[in-house]
């Protein structure tokens, strides 16, 4: 078997990452994973994890190979450590061993406690040549939602808002139409972000004044679970978020029986409500959360250090007065990621 160079290994790993991204909307709570099989400098098989509960990336890549006899002379590249456990599907490490693939190149280790290095060990014990850590940071970044969920036991939290040049998020109002700060393009991208999230959250004031539906309309994909905080259950029932069309969670201090697609969850609002909410979302396997406002809710996520990334649209218009935009603390950094979207948002992540 010809030895591969670091440049080649990175090239194939980049392809794994590219393939994996196709699973973004359908794999949660599983991670996105891509795999490529290379024989004598030629890709002979590719695959990715398409949907939670279905075949893993390695299985799809192996299935795609036309001449199975080539596997004995191949290298399998996979962005995540092959699994070693029986979950909804059997262990990928066993399949790789059974198919006699001699060399495995892995992007990063699986943080899931059932795997966590055991897949790598299984392959080594079977005498296979294993390389770990090719494009490791990129592979970890690819599954940052999965890593956050499995290590911090809460969803990966994305904050999003648009602010005026003088740092206001909205005018002061008691009703009426919200001011539109965002451009049509970012409004469309918000729908893309919604389709990529397991859940979307707004505070009481936003639900009341904006009456948002929080659904995906200007993009293709599933509607996220809607979440609203309504401490005293004072929001009117005819708001769009209560239309029963999409599963909706209402966090409240009251007790209220479930209605079609609307679940009321009681928490103690006097003792760190966000922490209690995160616990409920973790139990419900909600791996990613998009927080769309308002300013007060966004600020409480920031103040509680409960966020991972933020998309901030800095608009050229001036509002002169109104509701102050959230203030970031110092613990953030600009990222080189999301090249295309960086033309429209400031993308920052927490450090
Ligand atoms: C892999 N390749 O493509 C993925 C892996 O319930 P299951 O059987 O689908 O297993 C889910 C776990 O398997 C998930 O938590 C993660 O640790 C790993 N995901 N592993 O070898 C893949 N998606
Ligand atoms: Zn697997």
Which terms summarize this structure?
single chain, 351 residues, alpha/beta, 9-stranded mixed beta sheet, 5-stranded mixed beta sheet, 10 helices, 16 strands, binds ligand AOF, binds zinc ion
Q: Which class of secondary structure composition applies to the elements?
A: alpha/beta
Helix content: 25-40%
Ligand inventory reads:
ligand AOF, zinc ion
**Cα-atom radius of gyration:** 23 Å
Q: What is the succession of H and E elements?
A: HEEHEHEHEHHEEHEHEEEHEHEEEE
Instruction: Please report the number of helical segments.
Output: 10
Average pLDDT value?
93
Distance between the termini: 42 Å
Provide the spatial order of strands within the biggest beta sheet: 11-10-9-8-12-6-13-16-15
Percentage beta strand = 15-25%
Major sheet, described briefly? 9 strands, mixed
Instruction: Give the low-confidence spans.
Output: none
Number of strands: 16
Pfam families: dCMP_cyt_deam_1, RibD_C
Family: In the N-terminal section; belongs to the cytidine and deoxycytidylate deaminase family. In the C-terminal section; belongs to the HTP reductase family.
EC number: 3.5.4.26, 1.1.1.193
GO molecular function: 5-amino-6-(5-phosphoribosylamino)uracil reductase activity; diaminohydroxyphosphoribosylaminopyrimidine deaminase activity
């Amino acid at each position: 078997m010809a030895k591969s160079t670091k440049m080649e290994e990175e090239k194939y790993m980049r392809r794994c990452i590219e393939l994996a991204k196709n699973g973004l909307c359908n794999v949660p709570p599983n991670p996105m994973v891509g795999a490529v099989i290379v024989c004598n400098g030629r890709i002979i098989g590719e695959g990715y994890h398409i949907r939670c509960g279905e075949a893993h990336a390695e299985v799809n890549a192996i299935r795609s190979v036309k001449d199975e006899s080539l596997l004995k002379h191949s290298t399998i590249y996979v962005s995540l450590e092959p699994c070693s456990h029986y979950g909804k599907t059997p262990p990928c490490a066993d399949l790789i061993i059974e198919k006699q693939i001699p060399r495995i190149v892995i992007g990063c280790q699986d943080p899931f406690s059932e795997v966590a290095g055991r897949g790598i060990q299984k392959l080594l014990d079977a005498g296979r040549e294993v390389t770990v850590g090719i494009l490791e940071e990129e592979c970890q970044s690819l599954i940052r939602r999965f890593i956050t969920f499995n290590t911090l036991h809460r969803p990966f939290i994305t904050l999003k808002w648009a602010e005026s040049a003088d740092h206001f998020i909205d005018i002061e109002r008691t009703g009426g139409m919200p001011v539109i700060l965002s451009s049509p393009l970012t409004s469309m991208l918000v729908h893309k972000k919604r389709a990529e999230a397991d859940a979307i959250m707004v505070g009481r004031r936003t639900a009341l004044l904006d009456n948002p539906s929080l659904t995906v309309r200007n993009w293709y994909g599933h509607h996220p679970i809607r979440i609203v905080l309504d401490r005293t259950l004072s929001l009117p029932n005819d708001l769009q978020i209560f239309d029963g069309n999409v599963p909706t969670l209402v966090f409240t201090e009251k007790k209220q029986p479930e209605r079609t697609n609307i679940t009321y969850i009681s928490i103690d609002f006097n003792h760190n409500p966000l922490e209690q909410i995160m616990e409920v979302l973790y139990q419900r396997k909600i791996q990613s959360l998009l927080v769309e406002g308002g300013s007060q809710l966004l600020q409480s996520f920031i103040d509680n250090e409960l966020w991972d990334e933020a998309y901030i649209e800095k608009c050229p218009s001036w509002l002169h007065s109104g509701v102050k935009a959230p203030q970031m603390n110092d613990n953030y950094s600009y990222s080189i990621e999301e090249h295309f979207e960086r033309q429209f948002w400031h993308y920052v992540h927490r450090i």
